[in-house]
Design a protein that fits this description.
The chain is mainly alpha-helical. It has helices at 2-9, 13-21, 43-52, 58-65. It has four helices and no strands. The longest helix has 10 residues, at 43-52.
Amino acid sequence: TVKETAQLLGLSWWTVGELVRTHKIPHIRPNGLGKNGRVLILKSDLEKFLASRTIRSPEDEIRLMNGRRVA
């Protein structure tokens, strides 16, 4: 849920809700598109969302390209 995601990320529920409203974070509305319906955010979608916004140093990018792990 929005509340659980907010707690997990250390953000306010309003901030996560805004990410949902602006379609910046993948989510599911099992009860349809109603404004007040329940919103679910899958853990796998959240992980992909966070990975897509990870900023790495140039050195880390070189390590990744060479197949080495980045801490």
